[in-house]
Design a protein that fits this description.
Elements (H helix, E strand, L loop, with lengths): L2 E7 L6 E7 L7 E11 L2 H6 L15 E9 L11 E4 L2 E3 L5 H4 L10 E2 L11 E5 L4 E2 L6 H4 L5 H10 L8 E5 L5 H10 L3 E6 L5 H6 L4 E4 L5 H7 L3 E6 L7 H6 L1 E9 L11 H4 L4 E4 L5 H14 L5 E5 L3 H9 L6 E5 L1
Parallel strand pairs: 10-11, 10-13, 11-12, 13-14, 14-15, 16-17
Antiparallel strand pairs: 1-2, 3-4, 3-8, 3-17, 4-5, 5-9, 6-7
């Protein structure tokens, strides 16, 4: 029987371990992807620790999967052998729950998730549902495409649904793995893009990415600076901390939105008066296969690219630890 290498977690909280597994075969409606690149995401930590519902063990993490189809199951007609594809967080939907019946597949109550409820991309091959696939543009490399399946589509969807008018001020809080993509997308979408981060050291990086203004949240009055620009119609919070978010809310226009992309560990300090006149707090969580495809097409067209470090599959524990320590710049991608 043909085999493959994979990096798995055998039990909740267990270490990443390199193992040899049988090469999986696709079932009806499925394809097998020979993995060329798989991004490491902070959400992988929650899955590896067993904090997400519906998990099984052992599990192969990874939901930023890019590769070429090398086997097709019965009934798959829209995809071909050799085609480059991506597969992200959302692996399948049931099609029968109320959210699916209303077309909101991302919120499916019975969804499956790569690297959580089914094996993901820390491997040489992975099985994916044909309905979850995204075609990869020729102008986007495998390595650059991988983060677009999670960080990319999350920020892209947040911006195109934020309600801001062309030319309006949109602020990005944080310049990490999500933030540096959000900033580029905001610039290319025609917004006045304002980067907000801690310290002055990131100002040059923000300017390099096209930011029209930079706010040091440790030295500046964030709300006052945003209001001096006419107020932000949208603020995207991309980090896991809450520093500066309360001030950012006060920097919104009266009908502006604070959009949570990261998952802070602490409650968000919000007072009723801050949202009394129409401001809103909402979130954005990834996207479907076709939305990931939209993201990659836009990135290929406009030159949006992630900043990436790459590691071979057998260095997955080292790569994951570097990401968790906040030492990576800025996305980490495994290349099997």
């Amino acid at each position: 029987m043909a085999t493959m290498r994979a990096v798995q977690v055998a039990k909740p909280g267990g270490p990443l371990e390199l193992v040899t597994r049988p090469l999986p075969e696709p079932g009806p409606g499925q394809v097998r992807i020979r993995v060329a690149a798989c991004g490491i995401c902070h959400s992988d930590a929650a899955a590896m620790d067993g904090h997400l519902p519906g998990q099984t063990w052992p599990i192969v993490p990874g939901h930023e999967i890019v590769g070429a189809i090398d086997a097709i199951g019965f009934g798959v007609t829209a995809w071909r052998i050799g085609q480059r594809v991506g597969a992200g967080w959302f692996a399948s939907q049931c099609g029968q729950c109320e959210r699916c019946r209303r077309g909101d597949f991302v919120a499916c109550r019975n969804r499956s998730i790569h690297g959580v409820t089914r094996d993901g991309g820390y491997a040489e091959a992975v099985i994916a549902e044909a309905t979850a696939l995204a075609a990869i543009p020729d102008d986007l490399s495998d390595i650059d495409a991988a983060p677009m399946l999670c960080a990319g589509v999350t920020t892209y969807n947040a911006l195109r649904r934020c309600g801001a008018r062309p030319g309006a001020t949109v602020a990005i809080v944080g310049l990490g793995g999500l933030g540096h993509l959000a900033l580029q997308f905001a610039v290319k979408m025609g917004y006045r893009a304002v980067a907000i981060a801690r310290g002055g050291a990131k100002a040059a990086f923000a300017e390099e990415l096209g930011a029209h203004a930079y706010i040091d949240s440790t030295a500046d009055d964030v709300a006052a600076r945003l209001q001096a620009l006419g107020g932000a119609q949208a603020v995207l919070a991309t980090g896991t901390g809450i520093d500066g978010l309360a001030a950012a809310i006060n920097g919104l226009t009266s009908d502006g939105r604070l959009i949570m992309l990261g998952v802070p560990r602490e409650p968000l300090p919000v007072y009723a008066f801050q949202v009394l006149y129409g401001r809103a707090i909402t979130g954005s969580a990834g996207g479907t296969g076709i939305e990931s495809e939209d993201t990659m097409r836009f990135a290929a067209l406009t030159g949006v690219r992630p900043v990436i470090e790459t590691y071979p599959l057998d260095k997955a524990p080292e790569a994951f630890a570097r990401m968790m320590a906040g030492a990576a710049r800025l996305r980490v991608v495994l290349v099997p």
